[in-house]
Amino acid sequence: MKRDDKIHPFISGNKWRKLKHQLEHAKSQNITNLVTFGGAWSNHLLATAAAAAQFGFNAIAYVRGEEIRNPVLDMCRLYGMELRFVDRESYKNKHDLFLLNHNSENDYFIDEGGKSELGLLGCSEIIDELKNEYDHIFVASGTGTTVAGIQLGIQQKKLKTTVHSIPVLKGADHLLDEFSNWEIDTQKIKLHLDYHCSGYAKTTPELISFIQQFIESTGIMIEPTYTGKLMYAVFDLLEKDYFKPNSKILVVHTGGLTGLLGHLDKFNR
């Protein structure tokens, strides 16, 4: 397991990798305001809030849905992020929201989840950090930026590794079209579409039980939205003898552990 969750308590894993080059670009253009988007429990919003505070930006977030309070949004506020709640229909038109409400010369648009070509570049650097070559690399997928970035890194180094995406959203087969738009070779990307547990942030008793046992037996924290489904998929495939003997397998822990906060009541404690 590549422990990208250790990068930072809140700007962790792929959240940092997707933000890194976007923040550098904003700095280079003397832009002071970051404008981004996410749901009420978004790890990306918290990561952006923390990064803005640390690197001297102001941050505004458009939050999907009715105005609520929860621990993740409260931490965003502590970091100084301004939260603007918008109805779900308006939220669909993120670029329109940005153009209507912001001066593009001093405001920097960061898409939901940090999705961008610069985010893709940041995620490709995962491959540069590996000391060994692997037959298989597994990663959870939301927007697909991380798995596409990993594949980009593999292409650049001309490796034979297969990248496995565990989408956490239902009906995520469209991700291959997204990868093609980024000129990513999809032939070496395998989507496993049966581990979303009925949709984003949805769970099953089996998933919750697996996560609890995994954490107790390894000491590695995972959560139900992304990394829990990822590890559940890997263990399920191992039990089904999916891999050839002696395969070298790497799982990328993409952080985002504050996602646990919205699910703690489901665990036996």
Please describe what this structure looks like:
This protein is an alpha/beta fold. The chain contains 10 helices and 9 strands. The chain has helices at residues 13-28, 43-55, 71-78, 88-91, 94-101, 117-128, 145-157, 175-181, 205-218, 227-239; strands spanning 2-3, 33-38, 58-64, 82-86, 107-109, 136-141, 162-167, 189-191, 249-253. α3 (71-78) links the parallel β3 and β4 (82-86). α1 packs across α6, α2 (43-55) runs parallel beside α3 (71-78) and α9 packs across α10. 41% of the residues are buried. The model has no long low-confidence stretch (mean pLDDT 95).
Topology:
Blueprint: E1 2-3, H1 13-28, E2 33-38, H2 43-55, E3 58-64, H3 71-78, E4 82-86, H4 88-91, H5 94-101, E5 107-109, H6 117-128, E6 136-141, H7 145-157, E7 162-167, H8 175-181, E8 189-191, H9 205-218, H10 227-239, E9 249-253
Parallel strand pairs: 1-9, 2-3, 2-5, 3-4, 6-7, 6-9, 7-8
Helix pairs in contact: 1-2, 1-6, 2-3, 6-7, 9-10
| Unreliable runs | none
For the biggest β-sheet, the strand order reads: 1-9-6-7-8
Instruction: Say how many strands there are.
Output: 9
Query: Helix count, per DSSP?
Result: 10
What series of H and E elements makes up the topology?
A: EHEHEHEHHEHEHEHEHHE
Shape: globular
Mean pLDDT: 95
Give the fraction of residues assigned to helices.
40-55%
Strand content: 15-25%
How large, in whole angstroms, is the Cα Rg?
18 Å
Q: Determine the structural class based on helices, strands and strand pairing.
A: alpha/beta
Report the major sheet.
Answer: 5 strands, parallel
Q: What is the CA–CA distance across the termini?
A: 26 Å
